Amino acid sequence: MTENIGVIGKKSAQRTGVERVVNAPLPTVYGQFRAVGYLDHDRGDEQVALVYGDIGTDDVLTRLHSECLTGDAFGSQHCECGDQLASALRAVAAEGRGVVVYLRGHEGRGIGLLAKLRAMALQAEGLDTVEANLALGLPVDARDYGVAAEILRDLGVASVRLMSNNPRKREALLRHGIEVAEQVPLLIPPCENNITYLRTKRERLDHHLPHLDAVAHWS
């Protein structure tokens, strides 16, 4: 995309959509990735796709990972996000090709970091994750995946094998024109600290988490 300089004396047209800004090598403990950076002009968010290998166009192993500071960076056991991110990167490297789109602005299912922490405080008092968001007057899930679809299109991806337990991610990609050839489960063994949260995701948010049946002894 080239910048619209505009006519002298008139305000330049504001950019819209997603623009690729940089493509840099990123060696990681999981393998040699490329970090492809984007600017979402509509929301102002900086986004990144971690690309492994020659991904091609069809049936690309893909993870849309919602930003989670507490899980991804701090190792929180309130959720399984950090383990899911690590598992997705390992899976892509093992496959030899694939993409992990790291979606900033998705913290707390789109409500933001401080609101998420407030919701976590309410969960410590006995509310579940859905009830906590609603008690704060916030949506249960405010995420939008249009940017992810634009990034995938820019990378030349037409269809994905989507690593997710969330049917709403699949539905969102289909709405935005990305074919989902397969939904690949990304099941992380639960712990006592996140079992209630995960059960709520299964029972109230329709996440496919059949492995929770194996830990029925936890109340």
From TrEMBL:
- Which positions bind GTP? 63-67, 84, 107-109, 129, 164, 169
Q: Per UniProt, where does Zn(2+) bind?
A: 68, 79, 81
State the function annotated in the UniProt record.
Catalyzes the conversion of GTP to 2,5-diamino-6-ribosylamino-4(3H)-pyrimidinone 5'-phosphate (DARP), formate and pyrophosphate.
Q: Which family does it belong to?
A: Belongs to the GTP cyclohydrolase II family.
EC number(s) in its UniProt entry?
3.5.4.25
Any Pfam family hit = GTP_cyclohydro2
User: Which InterPro entries would you find in this protein's record?
Assistant: GTP_cyclohydro_II, RibA, RibA-like_sf
Q: What is this protein called?
A: GTP cyclohydrolase-2
Q: Name one GO molecular function term.
A: zinc ion binding
Residues of the active site are 141 (proton acceptor), 143 (nucleophile)
- CC annotations in GO: cytosol
Which species does the entry assign this protein to?
Answer: Streptomyces spinoverrucosus
List, in alphabetical order, the GO biological process terms annotated in this UniProt record: riboflavin biosynthetic process
Q: Which residues form the GTP cyclohydrolase II domain?
A: 19-185
The protein's annotated catalytic reaction(s) are: GTP + 4 H2O = 2,5-diamino-6-hydroxy-4-(5-phosphoribosylamino)-pyrimidine + formate + 2 phosphate + 3 H(+)
**CDD domains documented for this protein:** GTP_cyclohydro2
From the UniProt record, give the pathway where this protein acts.
Cofactor biosynthesis; riboflavin biosynthesis; 5-amino-6-(D-ribitylamino)uracil from GTP: step 1/4
Q: How is the cofactor bound?
A: Binds 1 zinc ion per subunit.
